[in-house]
Amino acid sequence: MSGLEKxxxxxEFPYAYETHLHTNQASACAKxxxxxxxxxxxxAGYTGIIVTDHFFYGNTCVDRNLPWSEWVExxxxxxxxxxxxxxxxxxxxxxGWEAAYNATEFLINGLSKEWLLAHPEVxxxxxxxxxxxxxxxxxxxxxxxPYRVEDYIPEVRLFPEYEDAVEVVNATHSCILSTSHNTPExxxxxKEYALKHNxxxxxxxxxxxxxxxxxxxxxxxxxxxxxxxxxxxxxxEPAVLLSGNETADGREPYxxxxxx
Length: 260
Fold this sequence. Notes:
CATH superfamily: Metal-dependent hydrolases
Radius of gyration: 17 Å
Structural class: alpha/beta
Distance between the termini: 37 Å
Number of domains: 1
Largest sheet: 9 strands, mixed
CATH class: Alpha Beta
CATH architecture: Alpha-Beta Barrel
Strand content: 15-25%
């Protein structure tokens, strides 16, 4: 891997995390393995990544006919591949997933493979039940790209009571390097929605290959683990939201109102 641009970050926010990333070991729409994604993100200057492959009723490539334990083992291969590589090269790799409800999607953070194995009920739970299950285990629910509308997302559906935070910058919407979903207005509407409901905010690339678009979040301090990421989001710790344009053409990153 060579030739990638280096992330451009504000000097006071040197620790960058890709919070929305897919691998082809669990996401049918992804192009690269977890190890390949880890190497690319390390080369670009990320401190860490969160692998958020598509879950059971999303665009997964894992056979839904498998028994639950076998399905979870297969689903986690992309994350585990990225984690092994990250441990070798000095990149933090955290586990998450992207749950889908008739194409309304949520990023789940702060839980583990072991939790998934022990909670098969999460597969068929409702949005409300998901929120309670995740909270009981100390995780968080992030509504990702809430205003995206595509062939596979027929309508916008919002659930402010059953989400902890909102992804208000999705780099596939806003970055000039993106080759899909190019509608910055969707992010503008997500920002207004989060502000209306007083929700913490996140940002991620929604990246599916090593052709990076340099989104994510940058913090003042290095995170310790997935739980620490959840804490940083929920306690609204200082951070900047990266659209990728900071690296692509030198635009200023987005500072949430509670950072200024």
